[in-house]
Each structure stands twice: as structure tokens, then as C-alpha cells.
Amino acid sequence: MMKTRDRSEELGHFIRNNKEGNKEDGKSLLRDYITEEELRACTSCNACVQECPVSINPLDIILQMRRHLVMEESSAPQEWNMMFSNIENNMAPRKFSPDDRDAWVQS
Ligand code: SF4
User: What are the sequence ranges of the domains in the chain?
Assistant: First the structure.
């Protein structure tokens, strides 16, 4: 949240002081302030949301940035990519076809 605040303040200063009307300063919250490693370190336990005394939802920012990484940049750990592929093809995180789900019963 502190890095998000810092980025918002910096961008606000840039826009106010920029005479040419540019709204982009070439930096982004992702990577310039918050690393992918930091985003993936969150276990989405929701404790920060529940305990925040001023009702800020840090998890929402984390999940949106993670979603951006996966949906827009196809950037995810190899294990996640395998799981995504299995869900897309087999409608389940496992690598087996839906037709073979009960095959273990016969063996
Ligand atoms: S949900 Fe909040 S408290 Fe839980 S791991 Fe993520 S950032 Fe930390």
C-alpha cells in the first residue's frame, strides 16, 4: 500500500508539473515499485483486509496486478501455466481427460 501511495503521489506531481500535457512518465506501479516476486509472495489470506482500521483493501490491488501479469503478459510460474492449460483443455487442474477421471477405479 505504501508503494501504491508513493506511485500515486509521484504521478500526481508529474501530471501537475508537466506543461506539455503528458500523462505518462514512463514508469509503472508494476516492476518500478512492486516486483512480481512481491506480488506472488501474497498467499491471499485476507488478513490485511480484515485488520485494516481504515477499510483499505490491499488484496484487491495485489489480485488485479497478478491478473494483469497472467492475462496481459502471460507471465506466470511454469506450474501455474501447466494448471491453466489443464483447466482449459480438461476442465480440471489435472492432466487427465474428463473421460478418464474414473479410470483409477478399474486399476
Ligand atoms: S492477503 Fe494481505 S496479509 Fe495476506 S499474505 Fe496477502 S498481503 Fe499479506
Answer: 7-98
Q: Assess whether the C-beta atom of 58 lies below 6 angstroms from ligand 1.
A: yes
Q: Answer whether 25's CB lies under 8 Å from 14's CB.
A: yes
d(CA 76, CA 59): 18
Q: What is the pTM of this model?
A: 0.77
Q: Is residue 81 lining ligand 1, measured as CB closer than 6 Å? A: no
Q: Is the CB of 34 under 6 A from ligand 1?
A: no
Does residue 99 carry a pLDDT above 90? no
For the chain, strand residue ranges (E) read: none
